[in-house]
């Protein structure tokens, strides 16, 4: 019943570098030679889309930091922590998985991986991590005992803890299974479990000749959902000076999740203030890298690639899921220049992302008055980035609220950022679309767009770019005929400013609106668009 005692292993550096029998460690993470290029087969591969892992594009600086931290642990034998922190969908999990895979490929580390989910399912947390690492999934009773004796023979330092390990693995199973474990082993305190897991890590990193033989990477994804995992990291760091351990703890934390869990956020902030901890922000991909990722997912027409890039705003996860949903629903077809959307295909958010953001929006709107809800919907109608002055003026017309408290609510929950003086930007395009869709489903969308159009018509300051915005708002407000002229004016402005691609997109938008009027093709409204094109 006593807590397991930490195993102290003396470290020493080899006097002669040739005496270092460890696997050679690459100087950097890059492959020794470029990966072979794969020839694209146009029109082939939709059924294989979900079987391939998405490529990791960019993130050069972040990968270098992770690799340097791994090297530092290997050379010193002293553990370190890297926290990958950022908004949802920006590739934190992909980056952590890349480190685990690359370190394993070159023999630089042994890997334990923990995952978390909001419901704290059976695969969530530290104990399932150990269970997977020892490959004891589904084993119970005598089968488990036999497996543990194979893993930890009589000469193994952990052989004396077989009963504790068995109890640890049983602790996340159903109560009937737990009851079968010997009553002589009980974990009364978290530090007892933590010590046992720490000893397992220590065992994996050491060998009989007295030196650290390998670095152990402990990859903990979505740590904001796992207070226990954060406590374990603090436990390991607390003992690092007196009893060093060759472990690299890589933690992934989501900004939105931290804002909803103040206790976990405080724990993580305290962790990041300590020596040996690197806080590595992971933001959206830049435009060039995001386009590269989308092109690598599937051979698509350039216009469709740009449409996806605009819609997903630098979020690799959303881009992958959006394309995957289109593939699943059969919305793509082969064209001369790659895959394209089928004629008449209705493009909407994938169901899983849709559900996620609906839940997030409900949390954001909880406890707000109706006029405040309408105010946030109005902000979403204005766009991903909106000026506070425009929002307030439109809110007055729509009889909605645009109070500073609503702005602070968005900022505090990491859903928006300030973009200069008097400008706010939603951090996620999908959040804005979820708010916009809520207004559409409630029947308020037309009135909100009408308020925005009225606000723009009343503007007396800089009029650049007003025409296309006004055309879009008029169109969504159901005022199709006046919208056509504004969209055409906006296309001409885009052309004059040297942006023909955007001009063509506005003309496409205008033609879709013309179709709703069912005008004959000889009508001059069609001809005006053709001449401009």
Can you describe what's shown?
With 533 residues, the protein is of the alpha/beta class. Helix content is 51%, strand content 9%. The chain contains 23 helices and ten strands. Strands 2-3-4-1-5 form a five-stranded parallel beta sheet, sandwiched between helices. The chain has a three-stranded antiparallel beta sheet with strand order 8-10-9. A hairpin with a 2-residue loop joins β6 and β7. α8 runs parallel beside α10 (262-272), α11 (287-297) runs parallel beside α13 and α14 (351-365) packs across α18. The protein is elongated, with a radius of gyration of 28 Å. It starts with 59 loop residues before the first helix and ends with a helix. Residues 1-10 and 174-183 have low confidence and may be disordered.
* Radius of gyration, taken over Cα atoms and rounded to an integer in Å: 28 Å
Averaged pLDDT:
81
Structural class: alpha/beta
How many helices? The count is 23
Helix content: 40-55%
Biggest sheet character: 5 strands, parallel
How many strand segments?
10
State the distance separating the first and last CA atoms.
Answer: 81 Å
Which stretches of 5+ consecutive residues score pLDDT under 50?
1-10, 174-183
Gross morphology:
elongated
As laid out across the biggest beta sheet, the strand order is 2-3-4-1-5
């Amino acid at each position: 019943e006593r807590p397991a005692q930490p195993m102290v292993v003396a470290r020493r550096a080899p006097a002669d570098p040739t005496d270092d029998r460890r696997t050679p460690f690459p100087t950097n993470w890059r492959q020794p030679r470029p990966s072979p290029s794969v020839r694209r087969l146009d029109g082939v591969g939709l059924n294989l889309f979900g079987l391939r892992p998405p490529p990791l594009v960019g993130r050069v600086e972040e990968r270098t930091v992770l690799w340097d931290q791994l090297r530092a642990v290997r050379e010193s034998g002293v553990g370190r922590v890297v926290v990958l922190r950022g908004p949802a969908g920006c590739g934190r999990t992909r980056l952590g998985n890349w480190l685990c895979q690359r370190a394993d490929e070159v023999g630089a580390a042994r890997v334990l991986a923990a995952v978390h989910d909001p419901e704290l399912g059976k695969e969530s947390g530290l104990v399932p991590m150990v269970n997977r690492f020892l490959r004891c999934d589904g084993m119970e009773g005598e089968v488990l005992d036999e497996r543990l004796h194979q893993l930890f023979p009589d000469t193994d330092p952990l052989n004396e803890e077989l009963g504790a390990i068995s109890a640890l693995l049983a602790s996340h199973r159903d109560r009937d299974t737990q009851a079968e474990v010997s009553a002589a082993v009980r974990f009364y305190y978290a530090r007892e479990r933590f010590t046992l897991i720490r000893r397992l890590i220590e065992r994996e990193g050491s060998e009989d000749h007295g030196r650290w033989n390998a670095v152990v990477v402990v990859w903990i994804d979505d740590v904001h959902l796992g207070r226990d995992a954060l406590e374990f990291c603090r436990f390991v760091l607390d003992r690092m000076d007196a009893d060093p351990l060759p472990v690299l703890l890589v933690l992934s934390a989501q900004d939105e999740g931290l804002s909803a869990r103040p206790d976990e956020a405080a724990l993580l902030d305290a962790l990041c203030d300590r020596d040996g901890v690197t806080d590595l922000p992971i933001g959206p991909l830049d435009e060039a890298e995001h386009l590269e990722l989308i092109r690598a997912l599937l051979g698509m027409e350039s216009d469709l690639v740009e449409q996806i890039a605009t819609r997903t705003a630098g979020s690799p996860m959303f881009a992958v899921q959006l394309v995957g949903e289109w593939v699943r629903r059969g919305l793509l077809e082969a064209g001369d220049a790659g895959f394209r959307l089928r004629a008449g295909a209705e493009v909407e958010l994938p169901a899983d992302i849709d559900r996620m953001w609906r839940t997030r929006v409900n949390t954001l709107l909880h406890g707000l008055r109706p006029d405040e809800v309408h105010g946030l919907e109005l902000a979403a109608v204005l766009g991903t980035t909106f000026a506070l002055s425009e929002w307030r003026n439109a809110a007055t017309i729509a009889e909605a609220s645009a109070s500073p408290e609503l702005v602070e609510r968005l900022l505090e929950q990491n859903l928006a950022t300030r973009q200069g003086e008097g400008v706010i930007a939603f951090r996620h395009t999908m959040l804005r679309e979820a708010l916009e869709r809520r207004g559409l489903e409630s029947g308020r969308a037309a009135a909100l767009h009408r308020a925005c159009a009225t606000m723009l018509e009343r503007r007396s300051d800089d009029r650049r770019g007003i025409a296309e915005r006004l055309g879009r708002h008029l169109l969504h407000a159901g005022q199709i005929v006046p919208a056509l002229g504004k969209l055409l004016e906006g296309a001409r402005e885009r052309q004059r400013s040297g942006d023909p691609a955007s001009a063509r997109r506005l003309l496409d938008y205008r033609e879709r609106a013309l179709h709703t009027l069912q005008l004959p093709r000889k009508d001059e409204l069609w001809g005006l668009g053709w001449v401009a094109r």
